[in-house]
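so i finally got all the pieces together for this one. its two components total, 978 residues if u count the protein bits. some of the lines might not be protein, just check the labels. i wanna see the whole assembly predicted at once instead of chain by chain like last time, that was a mess tbh
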Amino acid sequence: MIGDEAFRELVEAVGEENATREPAMLDSYAWQPFLNMSGELWVKRPGAVVLPASTEEVQEVVRACNRHRLTFKALSTGWGAHNGPTREDVVLLDLRRMNRILEIDERNMFAVVQPYVCGGELQAEAWKRGLNTHIVGAGPHCSPLAGATSMHGCGNDSIHMSTSSRNLLGVEWVLPDGELLRVGSPGSGCGWFCGDGPGPSLRGIIRGTSGAFGGFGVFTAAALKLYHWPGPQVIEGRGLILDSTCALPGCCRLYQCAFPSEKACDDAVYRIGEAEIGYLFVRMVASEFLLLLMPHLFRKMVAKGRKLLELINRALPHPFMITLAADTPEELEWQEKVLREIAGSLGGVALNMGDVEAVRRLMGSNLLRCTVFATVFRNGNLFATNLDGNEATDSQYAWTHAMQGPKEEHIKRGGLLEDGGENPYIVQYENNLYGHCETIYFYDHRLPEHLRTLEELAFDTTLAAIEQCNVPLAAFEPVTRGLMSPLACDFNEWQKRISAAFDPAGVSDTGYYTDEREPDWERIPARKAERLRRLQERFGKRGEAEAWKGREP
Amino acid sequence: MALTDYREDMTACVRCSSCKWVPFNQMRSARFSHNCPSIDRYNFHCYSGSGRMNMGLSILEGRSSLNERVSEIIYACQLCGACDVACKTYREVIELTEVLLELRAGCVERGEMPLEHMAAVDALKRENNMLGEPKAERGAWAEELGLKDVNRERAEVILHAGCRYSYDRELWPALRGTVRLLREAGVDLGIAYSEEGCCGGRAYELGYRGEALNFAEDLASRVKASGASVLLTACSDGFAAFRWLYPRMGVRLSARPVHLVQYLDLLVRQGRIRPRKNLDLAATWHDPCHLGRMGEPWMPEWPGDKRERLRCWTRTGRRGVYEEPRRLLLAVPGLELREMERIREWSWCCGAGGGVIDAFPDFAAWTARERLEEAVSTGSDALVTACPWCERLFRDTAGEAGLPIRIYDLSEILLASCGEEVEGL
């Protein structure tokens, strides 16, 4: 429980109606079953929750935490266990009241947003101006600011609009000690257009590859790059998701492509990147769409074995779905021609799904606003996903296969739901040189045997990741970090030093940033522990950070 | 049912926060992107559909307890159902509104309910209405209309005026005029005068289930005795009670429940009512929650694992009454319908429902003002609706705030177009 004196200062910072210590209210912030790899459904209950409305109020709260040595953490839209406290009595800053789009600079194509603006809101406003914003695969209810400053975010629009981190321009940052720092061009009063200056260039420090998950001060505003949108200001239509009739606008074409081999598919992806066409892109097998849209039927089919699903997937082997968008019919026609030529030259096919009325109507807003993917919960209540790093396009299939092994083991054991086989979600970016691949694991959190699986699953995917030189399932999770860091130049030792330099009082909740935790070895089979030990012996290079002791900047 | 019966629904919440926004494919601006008045006004997560379920689970698991503050949060909600619709966009397994109702029933069981609601329910028990007005004056609105008394005569259609229409004199002209229209169209109409009681819907929402059941049984027996084949109501709360709540409570109505807008729409389509006067009016339509998403027909509980439940078996809001009022408005010469962004099952609530108007009047007015600002943004001269609770709150709020918009009942628009005198039209 936060002490009276400290709480009084929090109340002074945000006003009485915006601070609470009521246990039931606090518990509404402690229910976080998603991406909770500990196998628990609750996280730690915060000691207090405050609702600051401005940067100044955030500073006041952070300063009060420093004075009283209270750990703090900020959250925006707050989906997933990493948004919750990892220690006792954390002061949680719910940034919900900071929910304004501060500026949309049409000419220079960027928006300045506060933390609680969601992707759907920003896109709706951008469309009115002929612009568009990147929406993460998780969906339009996520905060673009959080994705850009504190996490890694890919989506099916990444082929055109890259990833969250690449779209980050100027940032307003309340440091862990309460000081305010404007990163990039706003740091020198030159506007928000650039993340690297004139002004301090600290994007690498702020977020590294995956972000600090709320463990590194509070980001109170950020400028995000916007992109050209050739479509209408609003996509008209009825329905919500599965009954949606918000069809793709005339400036877009939706194609389903399939190829005779993995290599042919990869080559097509590279060549599409070279041709610089494509507005939306996602690699999913046909059975995954069945799973999203018709989970009841899907479950009935897998209950009878995998043969039927395999047959469906074989009908469209090594597929991807791509949406083209253009300003003129002539340009669109050219893009279609390029796509068909690429597919044809590699022995593949490019099917215009616009010819299929039901698909055309269903997939308009669902793809452009990235709404349909969150229906993934329909299958098993919950799911987990391995999180690939930003790796070369032609490593994605290998990664998918590597992840399948651990998954199959747990499915057979009854620790995960049957899902019909490989089901990657792959998106592309950086002219398709890079890809982001997630393998989906379905589980029902009402079943204890499924919850017990999660930690071992994280361990298994970490092992597979090490062997693949890739980033594992729960890269932000303390157990995984502890296992990976010695194998990757003691990266976490460097992160801890950065954290300490900016947070001298150590009041940030660094649970998902720098904390490490031993696995629950009782849950890990000895043969797997031994496999890890051998990998560590072979690849582990401890002590690099130690050698730099005393040479900190 | 009890809160514990919805444990799986509560644990199925993954805290995605979809319940806080309009369904994303229908999001058209940042200004009108939110769907839940409660989380929008009070901001703590526990004021959202998700947060309320999280809080309920915490109480159920003994992690925290129900007290005055928690009860206040539970009741600072219009039970408008917008969170439920948004949640079901993605999932079929969570009956969010049911959880919210169970939380309230739990509050009443433990004596943790707002004093204002206790007073309202006392009035209900004493005077048969939620407003505390004299029972004997219930039928005063219909004096001089010469309507059949269904306690003594048979009528094809029994009109249930509802509590608000029966006692809000400012709303009487609209109801009286509509009765004239119906009779001119040849409808055999009767009312129960002072014997008409509350539908019990609001009592159920407040958590007073026994009282709700008593009123429902009373009303059902009176309808049965009348021999009417249609139970017509001008009150959206009553409509939702008849269509969803009564079957849920196991109370069978012998007459088909129909809302006035449905009936008027039918009569216009049959040519028995002919709107003819050009109104030269730009109007926007407010979907009342209880006519729309909460006015769906009841579906029995799904037996077994909700993960296996078919989508058509869930309460998604889609089967509410949306087309009829729009058709009626478009049938009026010279009327231009200008839609707001939040309409149909993702409509923003007026603010009055769920007992908020009684216990949290400032919050109710705040919610109404948000809706009125949305209406003003369409450039409309008028906001039209078909729920007396919405209408009362909108009129009061627009007047106090000096907002440039007039409020009409849909029947007033129709009356004006049929040549009757209606102020401002």
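Chain B has a mean pLDDT of 96.
Chain B has three domains: 1-113, 125-269, 274-287+322-425.
anyway lmk what u think
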